[in-house]
Amino acid sequence: MKIQFWSVGKNNESFVDEGIKLFTKRISNYYPVDWQIISTPKNAAVLSDVDLKQKEGETILNLLKKDDYLILLDERGKTLTSEGVANFIQQRANESEKQLVFLIGGAFGVSKAVFERADYIWSLSPLVFPHQLVRLILAEQIYRACSINRNEKYHHV
Whole-prediction pTM value? Predict the structure, then answer.
């Protein structure tokens, strides 16, 4: 199983990039992993929120493969404990999913089509975070889940 992290927006600021690289490298000890930063459309400033989500959604849907398992991060999604995330990942591995795609949408969320395409909608928190911090939190939580599944020392209860 391969893990993909997709995020709509700008490249990482240096203050989060180091942490994201650290946790991504750690995840690679368990699964092949990669990041894809999806640029906002060039004319984003002149688009309405709805049109922007539509354009971003078209890009996302064009990148997805038919059998990709899409996990959309959204504050309206289901919350999970760290152990729940570990169980979720293990279940996907047991089901022989080829690729998990964790998607962090754009500044205004995602289009209805992307929302409907999602196989699972996950909320990290009812709080709203800057997208770059969500990238870091997501990478850390996926690493934590992998370490839980291997019964390693990183996670303490």
Answer: 0.95
